[in-house]
Design a protein that fits this description.
The protein is an alpha+beta fold. It has 15 helices and 20 strands. Strand 6 and strand 7 form a beta hairpin.
Length: about 625
C-alpha cells in the first residue's frame, strides 16, 4: 500500500521550517511505523522507493520532541530496555519524522531503457527523473535478501553475463551499459528483458531468477548489506544464500512484535523513579534491607512507597521463578502471559484505585450460572486496559511463527536502551472454558487425530522455512489452543455485528496452556473507536450466552460447505482444517497467529462426527 502524500511538503501548519533540510516525501500513521513501515522496511511513495532508516543517533530520527516516551515496566524488563518511544507524528504540525534512504538504488528509465544507479542518471536535485529524457525513473522491481535479514540490490550484471550452463562468467569491466525493457507480450517475468551493450552476452529475461538456487548457481552469496543503516555501518560477514524478491513482497520485511497488558502493580503508565536502582534492589532479600538502601539513596522520603516497592520485587520474582538460575526469553514471555491470566481471573474494582489506574477488570453483575451449559465460565468485564506493542526487531524470508533470535535483525547498528512502541487503550471481555469439561473433551480420539494433522503440517512448514533444523520451534497446536483460537474468531465476527465494532478494530489474546484456558477479546485501535463501551456490555452473562450460541450456530454452516467442512487440508501449508475466509478467518491485525491453526469442526462437530464439537451438546439443546 502506498502511503498518501503529505499535504505540506516543507512547512508545518504554523509555517515553521522543519528542523532538517530533507524534503518530506509522504506520510504514514504512527501505528504503521511499528507494524507495516518499521525500521528496515521498504516504502513506496508515488513513483519512488525508500528504506526506513535505523534508530542510530547519526540518523537524528525519532526526536524526543515528537517521539514521546511511554513506559510499560514488565515489557521493558523483558526486552532489556529502559523505556519505549512513540513513532514521530506525521501531521501538518510535525517538524521532523521518520528518516528514509533511497533503496533500491538501481533504476531504469522507461524512455531510454537504461538500467543503472540513480545518481548516474544525473537527476535534478530533489527529483527522481532521467536527466536526459526528463521522465520519471522506475525503481528496480527486484531486490535480494537472506535469512539473516540483509537486503541488497539484484545483481543484474551477473545475471546478464551468466554462461549457458548457468554458471558465472568473468564479467570484469565489460564497458557496456545495462538496459531493461518489457516485451509487452505478458505480465510474467519472461517479458522483463535485460541486456548489456557490450555485446558479450545475449539479452535474457528475468525468468528463473526466483528459483531458490538461482543466485547460488551464479556463485553469489550474501555480503551482509544493511542499507537502512547507511554508509556508516559496514557490511557484515554473512555468506548465506540469496533469494530474489519482489520489492513489494511481504517476505521482504516482517516485524517481530512483543506486547504486554499493563496490569497491577505496573499499570499506572508513569515513568519509574527507581529505574536506575532496581538491579541493586533485587540483591536484597528482606524488607529491612530494601528500606535501608532506599533511605541511603534518597536521603529523605522515597518517591515510591515501600509497600509498592516490595510488591513490584515480589511480582518480578514470580515471573522469573521456574527452577532455573537463568530463565530463557521464551519462559519470561510465557510468565508475562501467566501473570496477565491471573490478574484477568481475579480482577480489580475501579472504586479501589486512583485515576491513574489503567487496568480495571470487574465481575459482571448478572447470573453466571446460565453459562454453565455452554462450558463457559469466569467472564470478566475489562472496562479499562492499556496494551503496549513494541517493535523488537524484524526478519526477512521467515514466517513469524518460526522466527528465532538468531535471525532477528536489530533496529540499529549499536545497542539502544529504548524501542519503538505503540500504546492502545480500550476495553475488552475475558472468558474462560470450564477446565473439567475441557479436559474430558481433549481426551477424545477424534479430537486428538484432527489436532495431530494440523500440528504435523505446521511443524513441517516451520522446518521448511527455518532453514536450520536445530533452531526449529515446536508448533503450539494443541486441542485447547485451536479451540480457543477458533472460538475467539467467531466471537469477534459476532461482536462486529452486535457491538458496532468493525472486525479489524477487535483483537484476540489467547491464554492456552496446561494451566490456562482463556481468551481476551479487546479493542485493538489506538483512536476513539477503542473505548466506546459497546464491547464491555457484551460481557454480561445474558448477552454473552446469546452471543456464544449465535456465533456457534453461525459457525455450523459456511457458504463454502461442504468443501470447507470436509476438506482434509486448508490454509497455508495445510495448517487449517475447516476454516476459510467465508467463515472464521479474520483481518490479519485481529489474529495472533496469522489465521492458521483454525478448525470450526472442533466447535460444532462434523456431519459424520457431531460429538466432535465442544459446543455441540449445548447448541443442540
Amino acid at each position: 500500500m502506498t502511503p498518501p502524500p503529505a499535504r505540506r511538503r516543507r512547512t508545518g501548519a504554523n509555517g515553521a521550517v522543519p528542523a532538517h533540510n530533507l524534503p518530506r516525501r509522504g506520510a504514514v500513521r504512527r501505528a504503521q511505523a511499528i507494524t507495516t513501515y518499521g525500521v528496515g522496511s521498504l516504502i513506496a511513495v508515488d513513483h519512488e522507493s525508500f528504506v526506513v532508516s535505523g534508530l542510530d543517533e547519526a540518523d537524528r530520527s525519532w526526536s524526543s520532541d515528537e517521539s514521546p516516551r511511554i513506559h510499560e515496566r514488565r515489557l521493558a524488563r523483558l526486552l532489556n530496555v529502559d523505556f519505549f518511544r512513540l513513532p514521530p507524528a506525521s501531521d501538518d504540525t510535525s517538524k521532523d519524522g521518520l528518516r528514509v534512504r533511497r533503496f533500491p538504488l538501481m533504476h531504469s528509465c522507461p524512455e531510454c531503457t537504461e538500467l543503472q544507479y540513480h545518481r548516474d542518471f544525473n537527476p535534478p536535485t530533489g527529483r527522481s527523473v532521467c536527466g536526459t529524457c526528463e521522465v520519471d525513473l522506475v525503481p528496480s522491481r527486484f531486490v535480494v535478501a537472506c535469512e539473516a535479514g540483509h537486503l541488497g540490490e539484484f545483481p543484474y550484471r551477473q545475471w546478464v553475463h551468466r554462461s549457458p550452463d548457468r554458471g558465472s562468467t568473468t564479467i570484469g569491466q565489460c564497458g557496456g551499459k545495462l538496459r531493461l525493457r518489457s516485451s509487452g507480450r505478458t505480465s510474467s517475468l519472461r517479458s522483463v528483458l535485460i541486456s548489456c551493450t557490450c555485446g558479450q552476452a545475449p539479452e535474457v529475461s528475468m525468468e528463473g531468477s526466483f528459483r531458490r538456487n538461482a543466485l547460488k548457481d551464479l556463485g553469489l552469496k550474501c555480503r551482509g548489506p544493511r542499507p537502512w543503516l547507511g554508509t556508516s555501518a559496514p557490511a557484515e560477514e554473512c555468506g548465506l544464500p540469496l533469494r530474489t524478491l519482489q520489492r513489494g513482497s511481504s517476505s521482504v520485511w516482517q516485524p517481530v512484535l512483543k506486547s504486554a497488558l499493563s496490569i497491577p502493580p505496573w499499570s499506572d503508565g508513569r515513568a519509574d523513579p527507581l529505574a536506575e536502582h532496581w538491579d541493586a534492589l533485587r540483591e536484597y532479600d528482606t524488607r529491612e534491607h530494601v528500606e535501608i538502601y532506599l533511605k541511603g539513596v534518597f536521603k529523605g522520603a522515597c518517591p515510591v512507597p515501600l509497600d509498592d516497592v516490595m510488591a513490584l520485587l515480589h511480582a518480578e520474582q514470580e515471573e522469573d521463578s521456574d527452577g532455573e538460575s537463568a530463565p530463557t526469553f521464551d519462559h519470561r514471555y510465557r510468565a508475562l502471559r501467566n501473570k496477565e491470566y491471573e490478574r484477568l481471573r481475579s480482577g480489580n474494582d475501579e472504586r479501589d484505585h486512583s485515576r491513574d489506574e489503567q487496568f480495571v477488570c470487574e465481575t459482571p453483575s448478572g447470573d453466571q450460572s446460565m453459562l454453565a451449559p455452554l462450558g463457559v465460565t469466569g467472564p470478566m468485564l475489562v472496562k479499562k486496559l492499556r496494551e503496549v506493542r513494541a517493535l523488537k526487531a524484524f526478519t526477512r524470508l521467515a514466517d513469524p511463527e518460526s522466527t528465532t533470535d538468531a535471525k532477528e535483525m536489530p533496529l540499529s547498528g549499536s545497542p539502544l536502551r529504548w524501542l519503538p512502541a505503540m500504546e492502545v487503550r480500550g476495553e475488552g471481555v475475558f472468558l474462560r472454558l470450564d477446565e473439567d469439561r475441557l479436559g474430558e473433551w481433549e481426551k477424545a480420539t477424534a479430537v486428538a487425530a484432527r489436532i495431530e494433522r494440523m500440528r504435523t503440517a505446521h511443524q513441517r512448514m516451520l522446518e521448511q522455512r527455518a532453514g536450520d533444523p536445530s533452531r526449529v520451534v515446536s508448533s503450539p497446536a494443541s486441542p485447547r489452543m485451536v479451540l480457543l483460537h477458533t472460538l475467539a474468531h467467531i466471537l469477534i465476527n459476532e461482536w462486529s455485528l452486535e457491538a458496532g465494532y468493525p472486525a479489524a478494530s477487535l483483537r484476540e489474546r489467547l491464554y492456552a496452556a496446561d494451566d490456562m484456558a482463556g481468551v481476551l477479546i479487546y479493542t485493538a485501535t489506538s483512536d476513539s473507536a477503542g473505548s466506546l463501551g459497546g464491547l464491555v456490555a457484551q460481557g454480561e452473562p445474558e448477552h454473552l450466552d446469546r452471543t456464544v450460541r449465535s456465533a456457534v450456530r453461525r459457525a455450523e454452516w459456511c457458504s463454502s460447505d461442504p468443501l470447507c467442512m470436509e476438506t482434509q487440508v486448508s490454509g497455508t501449508g495445510g495448517t487449517n482444517l475447516a476454516a476459510c475466509h467465508a467463515c472464521v478467518m479474520l483481518p490479519e491485525t485481529s489474529c495472533e497467529h496469522n489465521n492458521i491453526l483454525l478448525d470450526r469442526a472442533l466447535l460444532v462437530g462434523t456431519p459424520r462426527a457431531p460429538r466432535l464439537g465442544f459446543f455441540a451438546d449445548a447448541v443442540a439443546g
